[in-house]
Design brief:
Keywords: Cytoplasm, Decarboxylase, Lyase, Polyamine biosynthesis, Pyridoxal phosphate, Spermidine biosynthesis. By secondary structure, the protein is of the alpha/beta class. It is built from 12 helices and 16 strands. The structure holds pyridoxal-5'-phosphate.
Length: 365
């Protein structure tokens, strides 16, 4: 038996998403790059690279991980490159996207040997959260002024726009893309590739993949550009659980269960976005608030229903623990870091990483 806590990645579930990605590539002609900032667990890249064209990044380290562990096309993006990073980023990448005209002007010459792009900010977006909205007022994410962008077209051959976030509504995507075409269409005719970023939930159940692909193909033909998509969450959604064990139960107006994990350390986005975790099937007469073992008072996974009263030693599976989860885990409170375990396509279980006191100690000095 594998000691909890651990993240359990199910390769069969992953392959389901990847097959939809392959379908989108075939039907739309788009190239699809994995956004490493969402998911960078490289032990499953062997499967992912069969279905995706490469990776995109948000830092030098991600560029390097993409090049060394994933392969294919390595797209480099960062909100701001430093003088110390730029040469290595250019040497590792097939193409580099600058976030601003300032960065482009600063580093265009150093990057002249590879494809160069600029991030555009269309000032329209889908996001339920201000903190995650690239089009929020005063946003630093990309250039919006068409005239200014036109003045640097001699130094770029493509654009990147990322303005969707968990958008599962095709009509909304379609409308936003229409607004983007209206704003930037004249510029689009002058480049060779356009990345539409991530945040499109096209692997979700019921998403109209054929309509989506037709829209992408129409966009690509209208401007004569290679379209790219940069899914993070859509690539790995519903593939991974966080396996935990109940360590204690208490009653304080509600039944409480404390588990051997922590949202602050192991599922940080629940805290940032004030969301509840998911447990399936979440049915039965016994209700518990499932809590983490850190000392943060609000370290709560959520309130769930169970068929039987929870007891010390019971195992729980927290759903959907792949995206923005493993990449954000941290050593707060010195809580045992979850191991990483893979369920292979044949059903066998393979632990690929365990973390020890030495890792905790080595994370500081
Ligand atoms: C975050 C991000 C992505 C991936 O977004 P998902 O919502 O995980 O699909 C892709 N491209 C850029 C530029 C991003 O910032």
């Amino acid at each position: 038996m594998i000691q909890t806590p651990y993240y359990l990645i199910d390769k069969s579930a992953l392959r389901r998403n990847l097959e939809k990605i392959a379908q989108v590539r075939a039907l739309s002609g788009a190239k699809v790059l994995l956004a490493l900032k969402c998911f960078a667990t490289w032990s499953v890249f062997d499967l992912m690279r069969e279905y995706m064209d490469g990776t995109t990044s948000s830092s030098l380290f991600e560029v390097r991980l993409g090049r060394e562990r994933f392969g294919g096309e390595t797209q480099a993006y960062s909100v701001a490159w430093s003088d110390a990073e730029i040469d290595q980023a250019v040497s590792l990448a097939d193409k580099i996207i600058f976030n601003s005209i300032g960065q482009l002007e600063r580093f265009a010459d150093k990057a002249s040997g590879i494809a160069r792009g600029l991030r555009l900010n269309p000032r329209v977006s889908v996001s339920g959260f201000d903190i995650a909205d690239p089009a929020r007022p005063f946003s630093r994410l990309g250039e919006h002024d068409v005239e200014k962008i036109a003045s640097v077209l001699d130094r770029v051959d493509g654009f990147m726009i990322h303005n969707n976030c968990e958008n599962e509504d095709f009509d909304l995507f379609d409308r936003l893309l229409g607004q983007i075409e209206e704003r930037f269409g004249a510029l689009f005719h002058k480049v060779r590739w356009i990345s539409l970023g991530g945040g499109i939930h096209f692997t979700g159940a019921g998403y109209p993949i054929e309509k989506f692909c037709e829209r992408l193909r129409r966009f690509s033909e209208r401007f004569d550009v290679q379209v790219y998509l940069e899914p993070g969450e859509a690539a790995i959604t519903e593939t991974t659980t966080l396996e935990v064990t109940v360590l204690d139960t208490l009653f304080n107006g509600k039944h409480l269960a404390v588990v051997d994990s922590s949202i602050e350390a192991h599922m940080l986005d629940l805290l940032i976005y004030r969301e509840s975790a998911h447990i399936a099937p979440n049915q039965g007469p016994h209700e518990y608030m499932v809590c983490g073992k850190s000392c943060l008072a609000g370290d709560v996974f959520g309130t769930f229903r169970f068929p039987r009263p929870l007891q010390v030693g019971d195992r729980l599976s927290i759903q959907d623990a792949a995206g923005y989860t493993m990449v954000k885990k941290n050593w707060f409170n010195g809580v045992q870091m979850p191991s990483i375990v893979i369920r292979e396509l044949d059903g066998s279980i393979r632990p690929v990483r365990e973390f020890s006191f030495a890792d905790f100690q080595a994370s500081l000095s």
